[in-house]
Design brief:
It is a single chain. The protein has about 200 residues and is an alpha+beta fold. The chain has 7 helices and 7 strands; from the N terminus they run αβββββαααββααα. A hairpin with a 7-residue loop joins strand 3 and strand 4. About 25% of the residues are buried.
């Protein structure tokens, strides 16, 4: 057996909790929502239908004649726990019924039957959508993530000072790259990365 990570880093690895979240998109023959009265032209809204959460409409190729996709459901927290336990078939059917309730029968007529579903907590490679530190964990764990132990540098949204955004993961990648370069003694290269990627919070 090799040496273990420090006590603090080991606790961070073992106990950082993650929030559940589910997204479900539905494919339609036409962008019928853009021709309703009133039309829906891009953007996101929400509905009070249980288990649906946010609904988002594409903001690209407005008024084009081809098919379109609605992000028909985006939920997190307790609602995500509920819908992720449904079979894929039942979840899709539930959200498609909600789209008919919101838009009328045209949503049924135009649905192709194609969909995509992502529930991060039950994804075998993910097991959670984003880091959701308990009170005190953020301040406690961040310094541990920023230390190199056994030639290992930890990056990812969970190691950033903000969570739940792609930016957090990208920001951590800049920090991790700079950390590796500094560990190698490549200070000028580290400065170049900071300048190029605007990691201005890093001081050298």
């Amino acid at each position: 057996q090799g040496e273990a990570y420090s006590s603090l880093l080991s606790r961070a690895i073992a106990s950082m909790p993650y929030s559940p979240s589910c997204k479900l998109s539905l494919h339609y023959k036409t962008r019928f929502w853009e021709h309703m009265d009133p039309p829906i032209i891009g953007g996101c809204g929400s509905t009070d239908i249980p288990g649906v959460g946010s609904v988002c409409y594409p903001a690209y190729k407005i008024n084009s004649t081809g098919p379109g996709v609605i992000l028909a459901s985006y939920v997190s927290g307790t609602p995500a726990i509920s819908v992720q336990s449904l079979s894929e078939e039942d979840h899709v059917a539930m959200i498609q019924r909600a789209m008919v309730e919101v838009h009328g029968p045209i949503a049924d007529e135009q649905w192709t039957g194609n969909y995509d579903r992502q529930c991060w907590q039950v994804d075998e490679h993910q097991a959670g959508a984003w880091a959701s530190p308990l009170v005190g964990q953020q301040d406690l764990y961040l310094p541990a993530y920023y230390n190199t132990e056994f030639k290992t540098v930890f990056i990812g949204e969970h190691t950033s000072y903000t969570h739940a955004w792609i930016f957090s993961a990208l920001d951590s990648a800049v920090r991790g790259t700079v950390q590796v370069l500094l560990d190698m003694g490549l200070v000028d290269e580290a400065k170049t990365v900071v300048t190029a990627w605007m990691g201005r919070w890093i001081t050298l």
